[in-house]
Amino acid sequence: MASSPCGNSNFDSGLEIKTRSVEQTLIPLVSQITTLINHKDKPKKSERTLAAIHRVGQAVSVAVGRFVAVGEAIATENQELKDEMGQACFEARRAGDAIAQLTDVGSAVPSQSDGRVTVFSDRTGMVKAARLLLSSVTKVLVLADRIVIKQIITSRNKVLVTLDHLERVSTFQEFVQIFSQFGNEMVEFAHLTGDRQNDLKDEKKKARMAAARAVLEKCTMMLLTASKTCLRHPDCESARINKDAVFHRMRCALEQVIEIVTEARSCGENKILTASIYNGIKDFKSSVECLRENPYSLSPQSVAGQLEALVERTEDFTDSAYTSHEQRQAILGLCQLARQDTQQLVHAWVEAQSVHAKEPTEDMEVSILKTCQNVNDLRRELHKVAVGRASDLLKVHGEQLPLRALKAAGAEGNLEAVAEYSRTLTEQKEQLVETCRLLCHVSGTEPLEITCIHAEETFHVIGPQIISAAQTLALHPSSKIAKENLEVFCEAWESQLCDMALLLKEINDVFEGRRGDKRPYLSLPRPGKHSANLKTAKAVKLDAEEQTSMAKLGLELRLLSSDVDTEVEKWEEQEHDIVRQSQSLASMAYNMYLFTRGEGLLKTTLDLFHQAEVLSEEGLQLCSSLRTFSAQLVDEEKSVVMTEMEKLVALCQQLQMGAKTPVQGKTATFQKVDSSIQTTRSILTVVLSLLPFCNKLNKKYKSERTSLSSPQDWRERQDSSTPVKEEGALNSKNSNGFGVKSLEQHMAGLNLLESK
Known about the structure:
- The chain is mainly α.
- It has helices spanning about 20-35, 45-75, 80-100, 125-170, 170-200, 205-230, 235-260, 265-270, 275-290, 300-315, 315-320, 325-355, 360-395, 400-410, 415-440, 445-475, 480-510, 545-570, 575-595, 605-630, 635-660, 665-705, 710-730, 745-755.
- The protein folds into 4 domains: about 20-105 and about 120-145, Four Helix Bundle (Hemerythrin (Met), subunit A) (Up-down Bundle), CATH 1.20.120.230; about 170-265 and about 400-495, Four Helix Bundle (Hemerythrin (Met), subunit A) (Up-down Bundle); about 275-385, Four Helix Bundle (Hemerythrin (Met), subunit A) (Up-down Bundle), CATH 1.20.120; about 545-705, Alpha-catenin/vinculin-like (Four Helix Bundle (Hemerythrin (Met), subunit A), Up-down Bundle).
- Helices cover about 75% and strands about 0% of the residues.
- GO terms for molecular function: actin filament binding; cadherin binding.
- It is found in: Cytoplasm.
- Pfam families: Vinculin.
């Protein structure tokens, strides 16, 4: 089907589908049309078949009518798209009417002589109407998508104007007034770009958007304290340098967001993905394995050249001062083995070509296998070196000794000590930057490569900013604002270390073949809800400063939810109640983490409190499962589980009561948010301590049941646990599971039908 001569060019000329919301809107329509076209061509049709086809045709027509009404309403709100949208809506309505007419066969079986044109007598007409309908509907959706892009650009422009005003203010009073406006504009921009990020189909763009938004999130708080410090100490050079760096970084991040949503090409995009060793190995193996299909598809020189380029990239590892002698020798040895095996392959290959062999010889096949195995071993060794170094650095830097020393030296006004500890921090920064570069080589996917590059750039930028903030404090040791400013930059450093720990886990997951799909969120505009000036929701949204203060707590929540997922994966019984309920808790906690970033499905504090209630109920269900599980345990084991379970019950009840308690005022709401997230963190901590212990006990008793229990004992135990399992299943239904073919497959099928 993919090679159909029709292709997709006639369908989507210039209308590439870039977002999940457009794709998901089209899929049901494509399915219904495919049903109409794929009806069985039998000479006689039963009345039941005719009625079914009639219903589907009428349903398509009615759905198109509603859809067109929405499109026309959007056109009214956006005059610049009125003509294009109007034409697309007109074509969609015309195609919908044609389909309704062609499927008007449900009243009676048509006779040979009635002369009516139907889906049975005019199959070509149906295909043409279907293609016109899909083309026009897609155009309406793509035009609607332009509105989302326009909203993001408009929001960015407002932020830039206010940013310019902020940079030029000269009094505290003026700064406070403008920063308040800036905070509101940044929250609006964060929500728009968060929706867009979740909606993008291209994973590379999604990763670049996430990186840019992370910079904006962290820089907002830095901008506040750096600007205040500069206003308090206007003649301080280090304070000015500190502030200028923040403003420059924010402007670059804002520009990157616009490049992504408008698909503008920039030099930054071209250099963002340097050639990684992972991609080099993948391409080299692909070339070598292609020789099985066609020994004449490549030249021996090109394959040897690919290997040399790959070996050259390993110099980032072997030339590093931080790579141990043993690791360096292991990498060099594997590179040499790969060269030898490739030379043997080339020799066997040339011999096969000299006798005009049509398929690989036995020597070639053996060489292909050995060469691929060696580069796999090389990849494994490089992964071990990069991940091992990153893990060691995170352990060492987790103590934050240079940061503490810098804070203390700055507060004492000791410029010499600040200079000494700045050198230590600079060395740590260089280690982290180089380690991020190595992780990029072994990350395994382009989105993770982008995240590694973002981490590298962040450490590279924040290191000098911490030093300039510490110098400012040392020059003005009694300044509370200078002290607060240094604290904010140090927290940004610690936050990036947390992000690096998560990145490390994701790289390991890819290497070991574990990848979790994120739930998509759709961002198509609807009439009245996405005008240029967004209306504020009735429920409270956190402002930029509050989101920043929540960021650290949110990151802890994300780490814990990730750790829970890791522990859950170790269970053999993935359908066990404890496993399912723990997974559900981790998923809801992750949603709460996204809320602290202004992303995800929880948009307002009311959404968060509702999620907290649901999480507490799921936690109490887990307690019920733990109680049932503990019934089979001996006294000491049972005591440990019951003690932790009681802690969990108390925390879930605390979360439930807190979420249901009404509050008034912004400060009280913020405190309630903080309390909800802290209690959720405590719940996950208890769950994380229980999971490995319960898994160990489950394996132990499962083994004993298999070898010692009588069939009658086992049956009784199963019967007693069934009601709990059913109840758990009812409370943890996956509402996000649905199986549909991709849009591309549907379109390929439609094109093939037309070509028949």
